[in-house]
Amino acid sequence: MIIRWAALGSALSGCFGAAGLTAAVAGSSPSAYVSEAGVPGAPHATLYAASMVLLALSLALLAGPARRVCWLIGASLLLAAPMAATSGAVRCSPGCPLPPYDSPTVRDLVHAAAAIAALSLCALAILLYCLLPPPHRWTGWLGVLIAYPPLLLSAGGILFVGRSLFTGVTERAALVAVSAWVVLTAVRHVREVS
Q: Residue 188 and residue 156: Cα distance in Å, rounded?
């Protein structure tokens, strides 16, 4: 019963977190990084930070049901949660400068490293689901189908293009895809213990 409530809580907090993050970013330039919505003084900085906490909570709650299927998936989601929370709490400076195109501060590097770690751990969880027997395998393949393309394109944009419309759009697509996968996976776990 606790596992079911954890999965339900993950789905709900993931939905509210994704909706809040979307609202916080709405109206910003599509070539801006998503994290710029959380810069101190930004119009929706508080909403951005609260949304990141909700997304981190969603990952932490999903770790319990996922651990019953595979302890390594549960561990990767559990580790992703504080990374997501850190990326929301440690806000980047205006413009969210990233190497090699800009000169970031230590705070910018901590923020970026935490965000990259959270997304990488989610990508690992998706991949691990692919290795499970049915019916859990489809959860992984769904994640590979919807999340991996924008994650890879976003990473390429950050590394090889820098701030641009391409990078901004692919980063948003990656966050939407990963959030959708987390919510859908949580709903699946709710249904399997019902």
A: 31
What domain count does the chain have?
1
Structure tokens at 73: 């998936």
Peptide bond into 104 cis (omega under 30): no
The closest of 53, 75, 54, 70 to 9, measured between CA atoms, is 54
* Torsion angle of C-alpha atoms 11, 110, 146, 50, degrees rounded to 10: 30
**What distance in Å separates the CA atoms of residue 35 and residue 84, rounded to the nearest whole number?**
12
Q: Return phi, psi of residue 52, to 5°.
A: -65, -35
pLDDT in tens, 86-139: 999 999 999 899 888 788 999 999 999 999 999 999 999 999 999 999 889 999
Q: Which domain holds residue 84?
A: 2-192
